[in-house]
Structures are given as C-alpha cells and as structure tokens.
Amino acid sequence: MSSRRKRGRVEMMEVVRGVSFPVIFSYDKAETNIGDLVVYPKLDFLWFLSVLSHKIGILLRQLTVFLSSLETCQQIPIIGKVNFNTISREELLLPYGA
To answer: Where does the DUF7138 domain start and stop, copy by copy (predicted)?
Structure first.
C-alpha cells in the first residue's frame, strides 16, 4: 500500500473517532441509566436528539439535554449551536480553571 493511501486511511480513522458518554434519563428525582451514546466531532444536532429520543422512548420535542460532570456538578445545556467537536474531545467536562 502506498504511503499516500496509508495516510488517507489514518485520516479517515481519525475523523470517525468519538467519545462514549453515559446516557442518564432524569425525571423528577428518579434517574435511569439508558446506556451509552458515542459523540463524534461532525455529529448533527437533530440526529443526536433523534438517537436520544429513540433510546429513552419519549418524543423529541420533550427532550432537554445536558452534559453533566459528577466531579464539578456542572451542567452544560446541549442546544442547536453545540460544538460536538469540542465535546468529543471531552474538554467541556473538565472543571473550570483546569
């Protein structure tokens, strides 16, 4: 295999790399672990919501999504302008000032 072809394969592998996050459904004071969801840098917001809606079993318009950190108790809302590239590098889950 030529070095150009190898380099192309490596670049493709880097593009599809994602980070797995646990999905916790929270309703009132009850929390249920739904499983994991892999976040990719080029993830589409509506597709992301659709996957969550399907995993949890509730309508898309009823979802409010947050990333949260147990260490800092920080909650970050996931809205249409979310940068999945940053999330997939897990930068948002570091404590402030880290």
So the answer is: 18-91
